[in-house]
């Protein structure tokens, strides 16, 4: 079912040029679930991505935010000390990965931390003043309720 008709949605929508691209990303899905991650809402307009990156060091992880895409990359680097390890069982996955997250225009990455095998990326929603709801005056006049309140305050 690749042909989806969005015309009913687009009749009352303006500025959703990226809708087709987002639907393609959603229908494609993730082919690999490595490494596992959580997305949590910490507070109003504050979010956190927690990614299980056991076995990786800070130097092997890279976080990049560009054009509303957050990319987290892990590069598995063999031990530089020349010590060759022989594993009888290797259950801790340490393979290279790249995970991408699509961010809204109002989401900004504020920081990252790494502790106990978890990489935490902090995000915050910042809505600019020009995107917040506002009352539009008709013919340059205030709405009737505001005019009454202004008259009461003046008296």
From TrEMBL:
Pfam families: HSP20 (PF00011). The keyword RNA-binding does not apply. InterPro entries: A-crystallin/Hsp20_dom, ACD_IbpA/B, HSP20-like_chaperone. Keywords: Stress response. Gene3D superfamilies: 2.60.40.790. PROSITE patterns: SHSP. Residues 28-141 form the SHSP domain. Belongs to the small heat shock protein (HSP20) family. This is Hsp20 family protein. It comes from Sphingomonas natans.
